[in-house]
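Example 3.2
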Amino acid sequence: MNRLEALFQRKKGNILSIYYTAGYPDLHDTVRIAEELEAAGADLLEIGFPYSDPVADGPVIQGSSKVALDNGMNLKLLFEQLKDLRSRVSIPVLLMGYVNPVLQYGVEKFCESCKAVGVDGCIVPDLPMAEYERHYKSCFEEADLCNIFLITPQTSAERIRKIDGLSRGFIYLLSSSATTGKNLQVSENTEGYFARIKSMNLKNPLMIGFGISDKATFQKASAYASGAIIGTAFVKSLGEGKPVNDFIRSITGS
């Protein structure tokens, strides 16, 4: 059992996951921000590796990716930055990004590098499930990496069951099919969607993302899942130079 699986066994609700972009605002901020997030009370971290064509990201995260790339961030440098991660951070850490940089780096090498620095899992939204199962599943398993799949309101029950069978750690439940950064609007349709997925009694926990930006939306999402993921609001806060601790306290109230 890796750190991610242990977290969901230990804590059954209100799990707070924070996404931020590696190399943003400054190139060498990556591990410092991770340390500050853990100290402030985040349960789980998603470190984004930037890509020039981020199709699912809204303008705030797109902007952070451009700054990070301009700063010189890439996967090779990110793994160098993370080599001392586990002497400084104890909570689960995921890497999140698009498949093209992973393919360029080499999938097997990517998995080995994740294992070497203590990364617990990955979220690669545009990695096709069939390709993962056919070609890459064994690499992830050998590196003890949880591969996190995404569900949208349009995902069929059959595909959800398939995702549940292939997943470890948790399933990423998108609040909508929009890009990141849209505010969470919990309509009757959204509530019905969340309730439908919850009623399927999947073996993996659920985490809700997209549109979670403050204490109110975090609590709304956590009513339907094990917790929620905040990305855009935190990246925006970083860009404004606000203290990490203040942001986390505004969500948790502690």
